[in-house]
Amino acid sequence: MCGIVAYIGQREAYPVVLKGLKRLEYRGYDSAGVAIINNGLQVYKKKDKVAALEEYATSFDMRSPIAIGHTRWATHGEPCDRNAHPHVSGDGKLAMVHNGIIENYVQLKQELINQGHVFQSDTDTEVLLHFIEEIKKQNQCPLEEALRIALKRVVGAYVIVLIDADNPDTLIAARKGSPLVIGVGKGEHFLASDASPIVEYTKEVVYVNDYEIAIIKADELILKNISNERQTPYIQKLDIELAAIEKGGYDHFMLKEIFEQPQTIFDSLRGRLDAKKGTLTMGGIREYAEMLSKANRIIIVACGTSWHAGLIAEYVIEELCRIPVEVEYASEFRYRNPVVGPGDVIIAVSQSGETADTLVAIESAKEKGAIILGICNVVGSSIARLSHAGAYTHAGPEIGVASTKAFTAQLAVLCLVALKIASEKGSVSAQRFQHLLDELEQTSDKVATALKLDDQVKAIADKYKDARDFLYLGRGYNFPVALEGALKLKEISYIHAEGYPAAEMKHGPIALVDENLPVVIVATKDSYYEKVVSNIQEIKARKGKVIAIVTEGDQTIPPMADDVIFVPSADEIVAPIISVIPLQLLAYHIGVLKGFDVDKPRNLAKSVTVE
Ligand code: F6R
């Protein structure tokens, strides 16, 4: 949530920061701003997307070798120019951008007001900046020292970056709980919330750790911990290419990412699964495989789309491994004092690897002695680093705010994890193991086939785009697929949509069914199929409009349905990876037909780093 970019070096800093903010806009787009040093500190900020800032800044002299920038997802204070970052200290010398939340800002603000501070915004960020300024003034100390003292009193999560008009050759940054990457160039440094603003300039990066402070000049990077001890920056090589974060000819990132899925699924399996040899290698969990197979129970914690992947994994793991699985919203799990301890395995599923709810959930479970397995997409992310073991999903950068390719990659990797545990435990027959390896290997091609439905799905989208509500139904492995279809639709088309287990319909939601209600039913051939056929009849008896996702060759459901989408046949364990494709396309096309910005849906942000 919120994107931060900063630059110091020989180039013009503002264009670098502006371009970086555009790349990070998926993290929030309520307002954007930059601070530069050009005849003193200059700050420019505007409500709305980065483009509004860009237009506003054209009338100013933006030359400067140093700049900090921010794109905001509002928490404290409405989206407006005044609440946009960077914020400025009372003496007008310091400017700061912040990602995260300062939880004790009310108390700090009162203390500062008592000391005579006046605030321009409603934000917690401005309070922190004034607090740092006050400490600097009272102690007559350098900014770095004032920051260190301030952070010892701050409760909350943050990445902050500061510039000081009196020290125009230095950026100062600190991190706790939110991500910060520093790109190391020749005589220049780039700071950002993720690597996407950095990759076109340098592949050498340092991931700043919690409680570290960075003092950065054009040709020097000093890292210190909160006790002022020097830390050695660990330089890593980025493994993403620029093309991966550009639209590549597609109208939207979301469409590009939907169409990348044959490749991303292939990438998530590559080097792990060899169906010909009948082998499955999971390097990231090798050391823990035996422990996992002996787990008392597995608890999957995640949010949103990743939680839906967790629900499917629950069915898969219980079926193959015969280990009890619970799936928890990370936010609920964290705060209800769960019974968890040694012998429990927590699987944290997260595309970004930075979701605050998931992160704090695993932190507390880890403290209580549980083993943490991270299934993340972003390499080097906080959740990945906090986990004892794990597997990356290798879907590449996901920029569209609505998750698509990360979801199918999560499903593929969770299937692999389940198979690995099952083979370690001996709870799956050799024949079934081999069959599932074959099925997984074919998934990428089947997804490519499902993507050919795009035109047909677009026509269906056109037919139903004006509906006020949608119901999504499925049973068994397809129930979470229905939840995911409904989430995608509401996120990007703002149509109210609910997902339900098809059998639950008769316990309430059937009251909604009439001739105006489109009901999307995921009814592929699996062990629940006959039951779903009955559910379709119940809807038709009440004149509901049925859009059925069925297996190729199905002859029973098509005559009953208003619209039918045929997807390739697959084992029920891997079928969700395929049956979700038309649901992603349906949501995409309805969102576009209604004229919405599907890559940046209102009120949302990609990486939810606040609790
Ligand atoms: C929905 C979506 C969100 C995320 C959720 C968790 O399209 O993207 O629901 O799935 O915010 O994010 P991660 O997976 O990054 O932990």
List keywords for this structure.
binds fructose -6-phosphate; Rossmann fold; 611 residues; globular; eight-stranded antiparallel sheet; seven-stranded antiparallel sheet; Glutamine Phosphoribosylpyrophosphate, subunit 1, domain 1; alpha/beta
Summarize the helices and strands and which ones pair or pack.
Blueprint: E1 3-8, H1 13-23, E2 31-37, E3 41-47, H2 50-57, E4 66-72, E5 87-88, E6 94-102, H3 105-114, H4 124-139, H5 143-153, E7 156-164, E8 171-176, E9 181-184, E10 189-192, E11 204-207, E12 212-217, E13 220-225, E14 230-231, E15 235-237, H6 253-259, H7 261-269, E16 273-274, E17 279-280, H8 289-293, E18 297-302, H9 304-321, E19 325-329, H10 330-335, E20 344-350, H11 356-367, E21 371-376, H12 382-386, E22 389-392, H13 405-425, H14 430-451, H15 454-464, E23 469-474, H16 478-493, E24 496-501, E25 518-522, H17 529-540, E26 545-551, E27 563-567, H18 575-593
The structure holds fructose -6-phosphate (F6R).
Fructose -6-phosphate binds at residues 303-306, 350-352, 355, 358, 402-403, 487, 491, 608.
Outline: globular
- The number of distinct structural domains comes to 3
Number of strands: 27
Q: Class by helix and strand content?
A: alpha/beta
End-to-end C-alpha gap: 11 Å
> Strands of the largest sheet, in order across it?
3-2-4-1-10-9-11-15
Q: What's the CATH topology name of the largest domain?
A: Glutamine Phosphoribosylpyrophosphate, subunit 1, domain 1
The largest β sheet comes out as: 8 strands, antiparallel
Mean model confidence by pLDDT: 95
| CATH level-4 homologous superfamily of the largest domain | Aminohydrolase, N-terminal nucleophile (Ntn) domain
Active site: 2 (nucleophile), 606 (for fru-6p isomerization activity)
Catalytic activity: D-fructose 6-phosphate + L-glutamine = D-glucosamine 6-phosphate + L-glutamate
GO biological process, one term: amino sugar biosynthetic process
Subunit structure: Homodimer.
